[in-house]
Amino acid sequence: MKYASSRKNLVGLGLALVGVFLVLAHVIGPFWPLIVVGLYLVGAVLTPRKAPADLPPAFNPNDVRQVLDRQISSMAGRLPPEVMAKVLSIRQIILGILPQSGNLPPGSPELYILERTATDYLPTTLQLYLSLPGTYAAQHQVQDGKTPKQLLLDQLGLLEGKMNEVAEDVHRNDADRLLTNGRFLEERFGRSTLSLEPPA
Q: Which residue has the higher pLDDT, 151 or 170?
């Protein structure tokens, strides 16, 4: 079934149909079956295979940290103090997760959200705010009586809450691993008849 929808098969069938049309037009003589099969084989053999899709790069905590710090450094001094405090809080949560990120399975939703928040969601949110004139961002009411700065703080609060959820998932995973190890040790050594106490 996979080959039936492949480029090789489709090109081969296309050339074979050309051969059939030549038969119907009386261009090809009595050896037409061999010619039609030959055209199919030419198309199937000479058509290159489809290049495999590039796999996404593996999660690299150091890369995530560097991108995050570079983005935050580029905005230093341009954000209001309360906004910067929230940004640094999010950064601290992310940096606290990164050392344990290797305990999560590759491709897990937690790793994806962590990486996207550090390298895209957070910097994009801040850039959108910084694209506004300072006075407008601080004073103009745009939604439900809130200024762009207040909306930004709300959005940063959502990102902070999500990073706390990821951190909780990571720590719960670590705790589960510790409990599993404890059960293993209990089964391995808990009922041992060997005494570790020194003789009297």
A: 151
Domains in the chain: boundaries: 7-46, 61-187
Smallest CA-to-CA distance from 118 within 164, 157, 65, 77 is with 65
Between 182 and 64, the higher pLDDT residue = 64
Q: How confident is the model at residue 87 (pLDDT cuts 50, 70, 90)?
A: very high
Greater model confidence, 55 or 17: 17
Average pLDDT over residues 27-54: 67
